[in-house]
Amino acid sequence: MAEKFDNLEEHLEKFIENIRQMGIIVSDFQPSSQTGLNQKLNYMITGLQDIEKCRQQLHEINVPLEAFEYIDQGRNPQLYTKECLERALAKNEQVKGKIDTMTKFKSLLISELGKVFPEEMTKYKAIHGDDPPS
Amino acid sequence: MTEMFSTLYGQNEAQGPPGSSSLGFGLGKPLPPNQVTMAAQMPPQHGDEGPALRKPGAMNEPFYLLRELPVGNELTGNTNLITHYNLEHAYNKFCGKKVKEKLSNFLPELPGMIDCPGTQDGSSLRSLIEKPPVCGNSFSPLTGASLTGFRLHTGPLPEQYRLMHIQPPKKKSKNKHKHHRPQDPIPQETPSDSDPKKKKKKRDDDPDRKKKKKDKKKKKNRHSPDHPGLAGSQPNSNSLR
């Protein structure tokens, strides 16, 4: 799995470097640079072909669209991962709090009902069994 | 007439108490037998819900509509899901340390101004997804005829198009693939960021160098015979004479 990403990363780095060199050639063009530019253009096409070959190996990979929004804003996409983890932890804590509160309420309700309706509560406990420890 | 009524009510009252005990009502008013039979007949007339409701009610007497508790899941919000899915390392990596804000910190070797929003120059990924470019199925190399379209005029580019080759300041990258970049064919325009750093380094080095030079000079002068201090300390100096 990591090898597929490394392969794609390598091809992308070569492609970007080729484009960068083309930009340097074009920024101050000389007649003698024409052959070099033509070569770089063909390297660009072969680079695109190599990247397309990598696509077949990675068709199962899904990237969330929200990560793309971070990239479009010029922000680090690792911030998206960080915020996902923080939101998951916050929600986990929230749900845990609800579970704990409901468990305490249940035990309190059973104890109070046991005081008011002792016989019925003994029958209820016989049907449902003893409450598991919270 | 009254005897008929009394006999009728007398029969009803006699049948009342057994009927009330069968229904489970303690000290309530006994129902006449007609209403008792009607009540027994009522549930089946409701349709499908009647038999299903009566089954748990009959199972869990004296509680009516007491259903079985649902089967609890092992994984609930009560457990720490981050440790459950072995994400502690990821959590410490992303949330323990400060993650830098800019995209150039994530991709330090990428050339160009990548910290600007993509919507400004139309290079956003969202536009690429929403409106994918229309292209052919395969990439074919350019022939000689098609390369004639790439014949350029000599001379530098206008200033508004010169930013492409400028790289963001390089930082220490932890990439496994370290590509040795070949020398550029045309000397690159010196980016403005590197010069003040070099100048700062020189300025920092200069006072240190000066101090070292001074120290070296002092040491040399002390050991040389022409130094006045040494000449004064010697017993054979002219001053003592």
UniProtKB/TrEMBL annotation, chain A:
This protein's record includes keyword Transcription: yes
TM stretches of this protein: none
One MF term in the entry's GO annotations: transcription coregulator activity
GO biological process: regulation of transcription by RNA polymerase II
Domain of life: Eukaryota
Keyword Nucleus: yes
Main subcellular location: nucleus
Subcellular location: Nucleus
Cellular component terms per the entry's GO annotation: mediator complex
One protein family per Pfam: Med10
Matches recorded under InterPro entries: Mediator_Med10
The entry's keywords: Activator, Nucleus, Transcription, Transcription regulation
Similarity section: Belongs to the Mediator complex subunit 10 family.
Known role: Component of the Mediator complex, a coactivator involved in the regulated transcription of nearly all RNA polymerase II-dependent genes. Mediator functions as a bridge to convey information from gene-specific regulatory proteins to the basal RNA polymerase II transcription machinery. Mediator is recruited to promoters by direct interactions with regulatory proteins and serves as a scaffold for the assembly of a functional preinitiation complex with RNA polymerase II and the general transcription factors.
Known partners and oligomeric status: Component of the Mediator complex.
Name of the featured protein: Mediator of RNA polymerase II transcription subunit 10
UniProtKB/TrEMBL annotation, chain B:
Keyword match Zinc: no
Record-level GO cellular component terms: mediator complex
A Pfam family that the UniProt record links to this protein: Med19
Skewed-composition ranges (Basic residues): 168-181, 210-222
Function noted in UniProt: Component of the Mediator complex, a coactivator involved in the regulated transcription of nearly all RNA polymerase II-dependent genes. Mediator functions as a bridge to convey information from gene-specific regulatory proteins to the basal RNA polymerase II transcription machinery. Mediator is recruited to promoters by direct interactions with regulatory proteins and serves as a scaffold for the assembly of a functional preinitiation complex with RNA polymerase II and the general transcription factors.
Subcellular location(s) of the protein: Nucleus
Family: Belongs to the Mediator complex subunit 19 family.
Species this chain originates from: Coregonus suidteri
Main location: nucleus
Keyword Transcription regulation in annotation: yes
Protein name, UniProt field: Mediator of RNA polymerase II transcription subunit 19
Lineage of producing organism: Eukaryota, Metazoa, Chordata, Craniata, Vertebrata
Record keywords, A-Z: Activator, Nucleus, Transcription, Transcription regulation
